[in-house]
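Changelog-linked ticket: guanosine-5'-triphosphate example.
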Amino acid sequence: MPSSLDSLNRWVDDVARLTEPAEIHWCNGSDGESRLLNERMLANGDLIALNAQTHPGCTLHRSSPTDVARVEHLTFICTQNRDDAGPNNNWMDPVDAHAKIDALFAGCMRGRTLYVIPYCMGPIDSPISRCGVEITDSPYVVANMRIMTRMGAAALTRIEREGKFVKGLHSTGELDPDKRFIMHFPEELTIKSIGSGYGGNALLGKKCHALRIGSWQARSEGWLAEHMLIVGIENPAGETRYIAAAFPSACGKTNLAMLIPPEGYRKAGWKVWTVGDDICWMTPGKDGRLWAINPEAGYFGVAPGTDTTTNPNALAMIQRDTIYTNVGVTADNQPWWEGLSEGEPVKDWRGREFDDAQGPAAHPNARFTVSARQCPSWSPMAEAADGVPISAIVFGGRRPSLVPLVFEAKDWAHGVLVGAAMGSETTAAATGAVGVLRRDSMAMKPFCGYNFADYFAHWLSFDQPGAKLPKIFHVNWFRKGSDGKFLWPGFGENLRVLEWILGRCEGTSDAVESPVGFVPGVNDLKLDGLALSAAARQELLEVDMHGWRAELADIARYLDSFGSRLPQRLKDEQRAIAAALESAVESTPVARRANGG
Ligand code: GTP
Ligand code: SPV
Ligand code: MN
């Protein structure tokens, strides 16, 4: 009888014939295998040992200096019909794409080992989880996948049972930016990536599978694959409620997922539980609520800015058994990055002698890879097969002006518009200019594997009789004052905003209605003990009708860019808000804004 692993074996044979590796290694995920690979990488320089006294089990990887972040311009969605990929994606015809990338794969593993990595995204026994197999010639990728996914024998058993898996082929190739492509074939559940060894380009379980292919699968199967953290907030009565939040890359998901409550909250008994920091798969349960799992088993987090004052949980979890990528090192070989208060760098991320004039010690997108279980706030519910029920969905981005600290959408359809209209300044997590404001719907601009117009329709489709959907909110930790500094202290203090959000879900927090949604009044947020001037408090919560009028016009232009596939419902929502703002502007003619628009 043919085993359901036959198709896997055949694919591995085909790939080996194309790439011509010196040997093939099937990863079982064992400790012995991991030790062996680490020894090899320490010997060949792929990994550098760090101070074993201060950071036991920690290593440093220096990527090629031209390979330090995701590359959106080299990332393609290859569907038979161009419109299925949408204006939000780069598109290539699948036949052309295979031909182009296979030519680069030909013979690319000569003298190298081909690793076969069976993995499961999500708890191994969860019905929401999905499996994949990554073939790679990078032992660094194997080591990262071992932390980031449930990798090895158990995943292979599930694949054999299900007979279905996402195929991912990866080679670091020549690390030449001109021969680099990250291609997705959602109709074939296939990914092909060559020329990069970095994060989201190379760890194919993460953005390529769990978001781009995952979002495609989610639409056809009736669930959601999102760029969201999942956090549990336990109140002093011991009740835990779960929030899922979508912020674009390097906009605060890891930080919010593991925040430490301000002292007053801690004393009162508030606790925070981390379920996930980057990706969330949500599916409607029998009870009508959305249930979520974190498909990942580890965190691939931004190192710069991580310190005792910002994210002490993260700092604690990365003291041992962590892979650092592109950080600097101190004289006694400890990892170092900008924002770390202790120590000073002697070498930068490229391994050069550190010199202020040559730039930062750590690359701004330097990362740590660490098992989720090492986080002091790790939630055991991260292993729950059915996931956790989501009470609130939060969208947010870097908006230096206009957008208030928090507001609540009036209903699901309005919330979908709020998510679709999200804007944020670009960050170092992808190559290209930093600090440019762009629309990044649901924080999925670089990650949605199909046409955004269809994606918005899919979101709207969850609003059905019997559904008990989460309330939807928008936050902005990044509003700046006239001095150019952030108005809001952020980090742990963000719990104050989450408390208001959960209060809205329970019907215990008050708000003021505005054309753009419900905003807390100055006394509705608990701000005691914060050094925030009365003016700052007001500015953070104010709705500038003139500025929003311009914003809604810009949102209309953005929605129009999706043409006739855009759901009418979304246009209607936009028009209703624009009209409400128009009347509000007429009744408040004073344009006294310094920073609106
Ligand atoms: P990805 O892993 O790229 O998806 O990023 P992320 O969304 O998990 O972002 P992360 O939490 O790593 O934060 C990125 C940067 O934003 C870090 O430099 C943080 O210090 C900073 N940051 C996070 N939260 C806040 C906040 O509440 N206020 C301010 N001002 N900065 C923040
Ligand atoms: C992001 O850029 O959103 C990340 C890092 O989480 S990467 O894995 O490179 O996508
Ligand atoms: Mn991310």
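Closing comment: Example verified and attached. Residues 403 and 517 are 12 Å apart (CA to CA). The longest helix spans residues 568-587.
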